[in-house]
Amino acid sequence: MNAPCGSPSVGEVVRNYDEDQYALPIIIRLEKDTTTYRQDALVATMTAVALLLLARASNQEWDRVITLWMNDDKHRKIARKARGARWEAVSELPGVEVTYRTATVRVLVPHLLVETPVEVSRLQVAGIDLEPRSSAFTVRVLIPRPLVGTAAKVARLHVAINPDVPMSTGKQMAQVGHAIHYASLYPEQFSKAFDAQRSTLDVDIVDWADAPSDGSVINVEDAGYTEVPPGTVTVKAWFSSADEVA
To answer: What is the pLDDT of residues 208-227, one digit of tens each?
Structure first.
């Protein structure tokens, strides 16, 4: 399954776009004299994107705008960083904020690019490059009670980042955001990743080599705005069956 491409990356200067194009801001809090690890930023991003998409069912205005954004074939996601007063300013804008270990990420409700809030437009896009943790880990993403359906058993969504493609952390944040977004476009499988009893979504970050070779994999292909050539598969995502979940 090839996911749509067309999302900008860290470092892109947004210009020469159509007036009706939407963007999903992904904003990470990076204060001075603090350490934020790459994996934590990716987990927080995936969580926030999932939460935002699930919130559509209970917020009519969010649903309207998110639908417009999803209907735009560019599916733009733009990662930015903020600290201090500028972080406080974007915290007042509609969206979902998630803290995971050392990382805090806020994903805002999409907006028209020509109507980018000043609180967002003044934030830096380039320079989001964080150090990784030394060890791998499995992630359990906590979310509210499922709004897109329930399943009798737990399944799991797996995400793998291409190790052969150099990407900044900001770029990777946008790419794993794509993975969650595109996984949600398969509602039957996506709903089965939810545990209705514990209200959780199981997601883990795994090795690239673990991806199945069949057609069940969602391939996130980059549009090539920055950092990588167009058509590069940056992330793979796939669902395991309930019987495969330990």
So the answer is: 998 998 888 999 998 887 79
pLDDT of res. 147: 39
Domain of 187, in residue numbers: 2-244
Instruction: Please give, one letter per residue, the 3-state secondary structure of the chain.
Output: CEECCCCCCCCCCCCCCCCCCEEEEEEEECCCCCCCCHHHHHHHHHHHHHHHHHHHHHCHHHHHHHHHHHHCCCCEEEEEEECHHHHHHHHCCCEEEEEECCEEEEEECCEEHHHCCHHHHCCECCCCCCCCCCCCCCCEEECCCCCCCCCCCCCEEEEEECCCCCCCHHHHHHHHHHHHHHHCCCHHHHHHCEECCCCEEEEEEECHHHCCCCCCCEEEECCCCCCCCCCCEEEEEEEECHHHCC
**How many structural domains compose the chain?**
1
Residue 109 in this model has a pLDDT that exceeds 90: yes
pTM: 0.83
